[in-house]
Amino acid sequence: MKYSPRHSNPILRLAAGSFYDLPCPINISMWWNFGSMLGVVLVIQILSGVIMACHYTPHEGLAFASVVHIMHDVHQGWLFRSVHSNGATFFFFCIYAHIGRGLYYHSFFLEKTWMVGVTMYLLLMAIAFLGYVLPWGQMSYWGATVITNLFSAIPYIGQALTNWIWGGFTVCDATLKRFYVLHMYMPFVLAGLAGVHLFYLHDTGSNNPLGVDDSADLVPFHPYFSHKDFLGILIMVGLLIQVVFLEPDVFGSPENFIPANPYKTPLHIQPEWYFLFAYTILRSIPNKGGGVAALAGSVMILYLLPFRMKCFHSGLAFYPISQVYYWSFVSSFLMLTFIGMRPVQEPYVFMGQVGSVMYFMYYPLHGYLERGWDTLLSYIQFSGAVSGGVNTDYDGFQYVN
């Protein structure tokens, strides 16, 4: 009897067990597609970044000119640069959808998978910030100045740490060189963490929209979900290509078309859209130390979710009040993102403070809402059983009085 190569070859058997024959819940929806999309975007970013690195010059006097050289003189350089810069936007869009699905369906109870995923998110934010500095335009330079200055709020060692990051007393050539080196090597660390993330996910298995045990209702990944993932990837790549060819600068800042000038500060300094929610939280607090702590807490709080109380169901499918509260949390995130693009004036300051409170209050309260809903249903069920004259004996059988 002959076996297929994926069963007889040890390497193919390992790959088949992780992808081809991987048992998956039968009812997972399109929201589970964003994990595979993230893997594809990561590959696109690494390949396009390596190609551009062959022509980029990490020097404060030549960096901006080298980007112009890539755009105008390198064969298809404009394509690789546009794919890389807009690919970062699609990367964060996919990861926010991925994290949002994890919050809604309580994927954080897969502790190891979630912890590695949050670490990947933090690393991705660092990589994106480092890459944004490399073009050495006005917004790149002043964005680096503002963000790195936040380390000076750390007591005792803050200013020394900031000068060490800069390699001097201001953002300078040494800063650009070390940011370039880190931006080149950290994506490979991210790819390694992605492998660890998949290992833990395949070890425990995915959760499902109903949040119930589905060990008896599993199907192989191929062909049921491989085709669905391929369709999602096709749509995402199609949208990326459309942006690259039709609106390549739609997500960029006009200030970054001007070479960096340390003597002229832009009227409104703001990071890329995927950092705006945290930037709004930072500027909503008048105290610098408190703002930096809130900025860090807005992301680090994700590490605490696996330790919150567990409820009867995993996910919000059976918690209507919690569903409304979840979408109010999403609304606060979108509001903070919008306010980050506005000047620091009323009513945006007050709206930012309200949005920040809504953002942070979600994490401690949503568990209590679910626990309260479980308690309410238990009370209704118990009172209905008593009023109907139904008792339960010690063997678990019901009988009517």
From TrEMBL:
Primary location: mitochondrion
Chain's role: Component of the ubiquinol-cytochrome c reductase complex (complex III or cytochrome b-c1 complex) that is part of the mitochondrial respiratory chain. The b-c1 complex mediates electron transfer from ubiquinol to cytochrome c. Contributes to the generation of a proton gradient across the mitochondrial membrane that is then used for ATP synthesis.
UniProt-listed InterPro entries: Cyt_b/b6_C, Cyt_b/b6_C_sf, Cyt_b/b6_N, Cytb/b6-like_sf, Cytochrome_b, Cytochrome_b_C_euk/bac, Cytochrome_b_N_euk/bac, Di-haem_cyt_TM
Start and end residues of each Cytochrome b/b6 N-terminal region profile domain: 1-210
Start and end residues of each Cytochrome b/b6 C-terminal region profile domain: 211-381
UniProt KW keywords: Electron transport, Heme, Iron, Membrane, Metal-binding, Mitochondrion, Mitochondrion inner membrane, Respiratory chain, Transmembrane, Transmembrane helix, Transport, Ubiquinone
GO biological process terms held by the UniProt record: mitochondrial electron transport, ubiquinol to cytochrome c
Positions of heme b b566 binding: 98, 197
Cellular compartment(s): Mitochondrion inner membrane
Annotated GO CC locations: mitochondrial inner membrane; respiratory chain complex III
GO molecular function: metal ion binding; oxidoreductase activity; quinol-cytochrome-c reductase activity
Signal peptide (residue range): none
Free-text cofactor note: Binds 2 heme groups non-covalently.
Pfam families according to UniProt: Cytochrom_B_C (PF00032), Cytochrome_B (PF00033)
Top-level division of the source organism's lineage: Eukaryota
CDD domains: cytochrome_b_C, Cytochrome_b_N
Binding positions for heme b b562 per the UniProt entry: 84, 183
PROSITE patterns associated with the record: CYTB_CTER (PS51003), CYTB_NTER (PS51002)
Protein name: Cytochrome b
Annotated transmembrane regions: 37-58, 78-101, 113-134, 140-158, 179-200, 230-246, 289-305, 325-341, 348-365
Membrane topology recorded in Swiss-Prot or TrEMBL: Multi-pass membrane protein
Native organism: Donax variegatus
Positions with a binding annotation for a ubiquinone: 202
Cofactor(s) the protein needs: heme; heme b
Family: Belongs to the cytochrome b family.
